Amino acid sequence: xxxxxxxxxxxxxxxxxxxxxxxxxxxxxxxxxxxxxxxxxxxxxxxxxxxxxxxxxxxxxxxxxxxxxxxxxxxxxxxxxxxxxxxxxxxxxxxxxxxxxxxxxxxxxxxxxxxxxxxxxxxxxxxxxxxxxxxxxxxxxxxxxxxxxxxxxxxxxxxxxxxxxxxxxxxxxxxxxxxxxxxxxxxxxxxxxxxxxxxxxxxxxxxxxxxxxxxxxxxxxxxxxxxxxxxxxxxxxxxxxxxxxxxxxxxxxxxxxxxxxxxxxxxxxxxxxxxxxxxxxxxxxxxxxxxxxxxxxxxxxxxxxxxxxxxxxxxxxxxxxxxxxxxxxxxxxxxxxxxxxxxxxxxxxxxxxxxxxxxxxxxxxxxxxxxxxxxxxxxxxxxxxxxxxxxxxxxxxxxxxxxxxxxxxxxxxxxxxxxxxxxxxxxxxxxxxxxxxxxxxxxxxxxxxxxxxxxxxxxxxxxxxxxxxxxxxxxxxxxxxxxxxxxxxxxxxxxxxxxxxxxxxxxxxxxxxxxxxxxxxxxxxxxxxxxxxxxxxxxxxxxxxxxxxxxxxxxxxxxxxxxxxxxxxxxxxxxxxxxxxxxxxxxxxxxxxxxxxxxxxxxxxxxxxxxxxxxxxxxxxxxxxxxxxxxxxxxxxxxxxxxxxxxxxxxxxxxxxxxxxxxxxxxxxxxxxxxxxxxxxxxxxxxxxxxxxxxxxxxxxxxxxxxxxxxxxxxxxxxxxxxxxxxxxxxxxxxxxxxxxxxxxxxxxxxxxxxxxxxxxxxxxxxxxxxxxxxxxxxxxxxxxxxxxxxxxxxxxxxxxxxxxxxxxxxxxxxxxxxxxxxxxxxxxxxxxxxxxxxxxxxxxxxxxxxxxxxxxxxxxxxxxxxxxxxxxxxxxxxxxxxxxxxxxxxxxxxxxxxxxxxxxxxxxxxxxxxxxxxxxxxxxxxxxxxxxxxxxxxxxxxxxxxxxxxxxxxxxxxxxxxxxxxxxxxxxxxxxxxxxxxxxxxxxxxxxxxxxxxxxxxxxxxxxxxxxxxxxxxxxxxxxxxxxxxxxxxxxxxxxxxxxxxxxxxxxxxxxxxxxxxxxxxxxxxxxxxxxxxxxxxxxxxxxxxxxxxxxxxxxxxxxxxxxxxxxxxxxxxxxxxxxxxxxxxxxxxxxxxxxxxxxxxxxxxxxxxxxxxxxxxxxxxxxxxxxxxxxxxxxxxxxxxxxxxxxxxxxxxxxxxxxxxxxxxxxxxxxxxxxxxxxxxxxxxxxxxxxxxxxxxxxxxxxxxxxxxxxxxxxxxxxxxxxxxxxxxxxxxxxxxxxxxxxxxxxxxxxxxxxxxxxxxxxxxxxxxxxxxxxxxxxxxxxxxxxxxxxxxxxxxxxxxxxxxxxxxxxxxxxxxxxxxxxxxxxxxxxxxxxxxxxxxxxxxxxxxxxxxxxxxxxxxxxxxxxxxxxxxxxxxxxxxxxxxxxxxxxxxxxxxxxxx
Length: 1447
Prior knowledge:
Blueprint: E1 5-8, E2 26-29, E3 37-41, H1 45-56, E4 60-64, E5 82-84, E6 98-101, H2 107-119, E7 124-126, E8 135-137, E9 141-143, E10 146-148, H3 157-170, H4 175-192, H5 199-212, H6 215-219, H7 223-234, E11 248-253, H8 264-272, E12 275-278, H9 284-287, E13 293-296, H10 303-318, E14 323-327, H11 339-346, E15 350-353, E16 394-398, H12 399-409, E17 413-417, H13 427-434, E18 446-449, H14 458-465, E19 470-475, H15 479-491, E20 497-502, E21 504-505, E22 512-513, E23 528-531, H16 535-552, E24 556-561, E25 569-573, H17 577-592, H18 599-609, H19 611-614, E26 621-625, E27 631-635, H20 638-652, E28 657-662, E29 664-666, H21 670-676, E30 683-687, H22 701-712, E31 721-727, H23 736-748, E32 755-757, E33 770-777, H24 784-796, E34 799-807, E35 814-822, E36 839-844, E37 859-868, H25 874-879, H26 881-889, H27 892-900, E38 904-908, H28 910-917, H29 924-940, H30 945-957, H31 963-974, E39 981-983, E40 1029-1033, E41 1062-1072, E42 1082-1088, E43 1101-1104, H32 1110-1120, E44 1127-1133, E45 1139-1145, H33 1146-1153, H34 1162-1168, H35 1175-1184, ...
Parallel strand pairs: 3-4, 3-6, 4-5, 6-7, 11-14, 11-15, 12-13, 12-14, 17-18, 17-19, 19-20, 20-24, 23-24, 27-28, 27-30, 30-31, 31-32, 33-36, 36-37, 37-38, 51-52, 51-54, 52-53, 54-55
Antiparallel strand pairs: 1-2, 1-8, 9-10, 16-25, 21-22, 23-29, 25-34, 26-28, 33-35, 34-35, 38-39, 40-44, 41-42, 41-50, 42-47, 43-46, 43-50, 44-45, 48-49
Helix pairs in contact: 4-5, 4-7, 12-16, 14-15, 16-17, 16-18, 17-18, 20-23, 21-22, 24-29, 28-29, 28-31, 29-31, 30-31, 43-45, 44-45, 45-46
């Protein structure tokens, strides 16, 4: 059938009334055009669409269109149709049954063709003029041979689309397959009894099968099942259908009248089942959806009732139909204990309980909505109200929010310098200010976010000079730009406090690391420098800074780590706004009484005075560890927190180790420093984050201060050995184990200057401490699971720490959320400022992460690894398929670590579970988060009623008032336990080249980076336009956005403009197969796919995304007179249709993106004409781009095949702006090549067989195909972007089926893969059928491609028949069709008697001769005549047993 369309009724006569909205303006029809002639006139995108429709309907298609008008979308279809390369003429309508006119821009020509069609009574559709059309196309839902269309007679096209989607959703998923199986049954019945008189009996028999069996049963029929039906039909009675499959009883528990309460599986079962047994209590609203027979049972479910209904049930089940059992209950039902289901199981019936929404939650307590509390200052989300608690209440906050809370409460004005447009610094303050929240002094607070640039702090200086209480929040990279103003502020003694988040930004990859180097720029400005090493200190010392600045009139930079402290979310003691006011005034009063003392002493006075509020007395230099320590580690920031943990641990073990936390860096107080040190110290290691860079040879400020303290002060003991160093880059090295190793080396006297701290083997933990890591890919939208889990833990555990490591510089951003929690308030490691090293539980929410990161490295011995992996089912687990697939997907080193650590591996498919519960409402991504959150609870603590109750409260708090949604989400959560697949790790997983000390080369954590967001231009476009736009951009517009506000686009794929997935592979071999002197260069190329995730099936094609020749591009750039380094803002469509922007240089665009050496069409000449300044050139370009000049353009194209670059050289006065030129040239399209390898034999590589495409123009210019030129020039190690394209070339499902292969030249490629696949099966003990290969080329000595391999397979017996045909090795030319004809008896037997498949790959020219040879084989060795043989060949084509892939 052709696609469904509408046949238009005659138009009303002029002046007649318009038809009413209820009159039929059109009629839905469908034409059977299989085997009939269909003509397509034109070459645009619509022509391509119409051609595809006609081909799908098995029509014989002819396309009439000059080559110059063929669109890119139509071009690949021309090899499947008859193409007439000229303009339409009247005789083209001869023998045509239907015509599509797709002529854009020439309405008179379209009208002429339509008139000729009307004169001959040929139905015609004109794409640009519905008034000339006899019929129009409708949007349809297609499932194989099933089509669904809805017409509203033009009154509501959007409504029609909506109704069509709803109808499609209600259809059985197997409907299309069911129709195909019925068609095959009809065909076999016709073969078995072709008599015309048997037609009615055949039709009735097919109808009986359709009525008696369910859609699912019919769809599942095998060839053997169909043959059994045919035998029954031919038997004497033919009344009783054979047994195929027994049905299943599907149990659905119902507790309300709302069908929305049903899960998707339950709803589908209800509407698809042929018989439904329902309790009498089931509401009629649910029963309305029953489409099959309905039997309502009495109230009593006793054995008598069950037996009475069983005859109907068993009869239904025995003919393969499923039965739905609706039970008015929400209680747990045991198959074993329930009398009804125990009865059926004894009869051998399968009983399936479908997921349902738990009834125990059907009456969720409807709480009165809580009034929103008055906003408070410490947070940006729902935790805000908790800050109004009494003094000492513990609140979960990030370091950034803790500092912001103090800054806002104690200032009138705040200025924010985030350093990056996407940074969150200052967002909380901006929100509080916008909401009019007053500070601790009852004043309104103003806030402004500013750009970092020279002179940026002038506004701070001005505001402070006016007497306002001013604070600033800044990324530390803003401080160097503020330096001049900092001197002025300090000179004027203005009590400004700058809260600086310190970090080092790598200008190459935008990664960030821990560093205080930028703070050094303020060290000599007169500002005091005060350091915080944790979230709690960030809150407390921010208050100290404001008090000291206010009393001493000394400005202060209070700095804290941006990498760890700012982002870490943990429970701290927070002073709410009114308590802050009391603390500030109290300490201010005490400090004012002694304000004349040195600033260091004054700061210590404030710290001491605030002890009642903090619960801890801070010190300028705080020492922990052994009182008689000989080795001391000096540091500041988070490094000091690590060092303190190590010092406490080692000193308890009896080692003489200590740690000194430097809080006041400026003014430096040598006296306080030396007083804090134990007098027994012999060696000091300074972890110095103030150095200019981590690898700088120059010492940092901290080390210089420590050194000077021993020489400039009254230190009368031997000067300790002093060493300075830092951590290696990467958060994975910032660990307790690294600092502990430093302490041991320090005691042993083996520390050298410039030491670098690295993570050591072994991890830290303590009793009662729980550690979890949750991995997410940003685009999956699953990060909410970690957020919700953190909030739940906050309310159920005494101490909780959460830290998210996120890398936005990856193609697909990845995050890892590290959680620590404990019931013990005294747990020291909960607050440890480093990544989790020994997690109890790791959850990977996207299985692709397994090949990118070593997620097992952070798992403790015996820990649990949960992997969310689509397609994972109980069936794949039981069969061993899941374990096999995982073993291929997980890197060798990681697999070995799983076994070595005795990890409990659990897999689930969160998407499948979510889909089962998302029917009428609900966001699937929200359900997926919920499923992953529930999996954590089931695997760590089992069923948890407290969590379920908190989930209900959370949903209510989020504004969800629909109990149906709440019940559904709760039901989805509690169903998770049934879908957790526990994978048994096999011994083979541990087999690797490494031993217990095996180390994975994969990173253990994402690289923290500057937060970057994608910048989108425009809106989604529903059209098919591939239009691109280019704009010249200043070079700094493409620079990292830390300095400038212009953000740039990060693409989510290697080729974001493509819908298919792409991979980067590397060349391992590129070998010419033909002699150098031979005129055809055929070469074999292999690519390494290790670690890319690329997988392919036998027969598929590899899309190669080729590049233009860089040297040719350089020549063109020089000739055109443009700057190759000029940055272009290049806007185009992404693979999913969105507008995206890329920043690339001209040289990059011409090499990687724009097809500058491709073939221009008429539109390019139309574009170019307006840019020509020479009148003669302008006239010539205009002529070639016009309709009248089409013949000349076609001649030029055919004879000279000019490229876009050639056309520009032909008309040198035409110089469009480079951004316009780039937008006018299409992008490089991938070229697809049949894969010449089987993945079963080559699991980590893919092979191609390619011939260099070259030709000579009429003028003698040598031309090359763009992609083959690119491929032939590749060397070993070169990286290539590729994609996979499905193909019709598929081996038969049965390994026993004969395979006949006919390949010409490089058409040999897929057949090498076929032979390798069968060789692999045979080597593994599988029985394989016979194989015949017909290979054609010109000469055996030059072009016997893979000849030695095929001869070897032939000698081995795998390749049963090897029939090469070398056309020019003898006087008479011999082609493959001759060899096929010689083997007609063999081929007839293989194809007809043993259900073999025939494949042809290569150029189109031999197709008619090959077809004739096969028809000859059928007629010579069977009773078929020529017509029957041709018909049988067409049937084999439909059955995918006569497959042509020609070009």
